[in-house]
Design brief:
The chain is α+β, with helices and mostly antiparallel strands. The chain is built from three helices and twelve strands; from the N terminus they run αβββββββαβββββα. Strands 4-3-7-6-5-9-8 form a seven-stranded antiparallel sheet. It has a three-stranded antiparallel sheet with strand order 10-11-12. The protein has a two-stranded antiparallel ribbon with strand order 1-2. The two termini are about 25 Å apart. About 5% of the residues have low confidence.
Length: about 140
């Protein structure tokens, strides 16, 4: 529940634009995670995360500036916010940072993020990814 009794309409709109990444119907989704960078616990906004990658038993969130160790499982990330979608066994991307999607051989797709990085959507996740793009 958000209480904005002591704020102007302009302040409320600014807050929502800055901190609420996504809403569906009347439901607001979370806006941040806790991550570890260089041994320090810090907050990471969903809107800053380009993608998550599971490497062995660890999960990392990548932003433009840094990588953060995240204390949850990859499958939990998919349920945090509808902007996150799995593209292969070890990667979940932020759909807001997708710049281009190109077909590859063997029914795979290549996703180019806005920072120029290329990630691969494998065949298992291809149909779900394409359906997701059509919905949003």
């Amino acid at each position: 529940t958000f209480l904005f009794d002591n704020y102007s309409e302009e302040d409320v709109i600014q807050f929502l634009e800055e901190y609420i990444v996504s809403s569906v119907g009347n439901n607001f989704y979370g806006i941040q995670l806790k991550g570890i960078r260089q041994g320090e616990l810090t907050k990471v906004l969903f809107s800053d995360i380009y993608y998550f990658e599971a490497i062995q038993s660890r999960l990392y969130a990548y932003t433009q500036e840094s990588a953060y160790l995240i204390k949850c499982k990859l499958y939990e990330i998919e349920d945090l916010n509808p902007i996150f979608i799995r593209i292969n066994k070890s990667t979940v991307i932020n759909i807001l940072f997708v710049g281009r999607v190109r077909p590859l051989i063997n029914s795979k797709l290549q996703v180019e993020l806005l920072d120029g990085q290329d990630l691969e959507v494998n065949r298992k996740y291809r149909k779900n990814f394409l359906n997701y793009l059509e919905e949003y």
